[in-house]
Amino acid sequence: MGAGVIQNQGEGTRRRRRGRGKAQPMSEINVTPFVDVMLVLLIIFMVAAPLLTVGVPVELPKTAAGALPTEQEEPLTITITAAGDLQIQTTETARGELIPKLRAIAAERTSDQVFLRADGAVPYAQVMEVMGALNAGGFANIGLVTDIGGPTLDGQDR
């Protein structure tokens, strides 16, 4: 009634174990999940990297000046292109609209720091006009953006 049935296993169906019946550790590593994760991360960084750069392509002059300290708030960037066009961050702005827009931006920001990027071909007078407009718009802390590695006054390149 409650007796179990014992089936006879043939010679071909027996499995042999090596050693004393212990299972051997697997010495191969499955790298497929690792490759999948790395490919996903690569795609994420490839999509996100272009979004991290702010600005318009300009040929900045090279100087030996050091970098400014960074702040918690995203810096406001004004760009003067080689053609003389003005841009606030990446939005093109007419010269007549610059001061009213700067005043509106200054009212919303806690910092009065602004970065001025100008192409190396832009005349000095135009850069000074924009700096005066920045001051009139409420930004007294103006940082001029340049590339590193330019000449120094002692005649040596860095």
Task: List descriptors.
3 helices; elongated; 5-stranded mixed beta sheet; about 30% helix; about 15% strand; two-stranded parallel ribbon; alpha/beta; about 160 residues; 7 strands
List the SSEs and their pairings.
Layout: H1 32-52, E1 62-63, E2 76-80, E3 86-88, E4 91-93, H2 98-108, E5 113-118, H3 124-136, E6 141-145, E7 147-148
Parallel strand pairs: 1-7, 2-5, 5-6
Antiparallel strand pairs: 2-3, 3-4
- Strand tally is 7
**Count of discrete alpha- or pi-helical segments spanning 4 or more residues:** 3
Biggest sheet character? 5 strands, mixed
Overall residue-averaged pLDDT value: 78
> What's the N-to-C terminus distance?
96 Å
Strand fraction:
15-25%
User: Measured on Cα atoms, how large is the radius of gyration?
Assistant: 33 Å
Helical content, roughly? 25-40%
Strand order of the largest sheet: 4-3-2-5-6
- The succession of helices and strands, N to C, reads HEEEEHEHEE
> Which stretches are low in confidence, meaning pLDDT under 50 for 5 or more residues running?
none
- Which structural category fits the helices and strands? alpha/beta
Rough shape? elongated
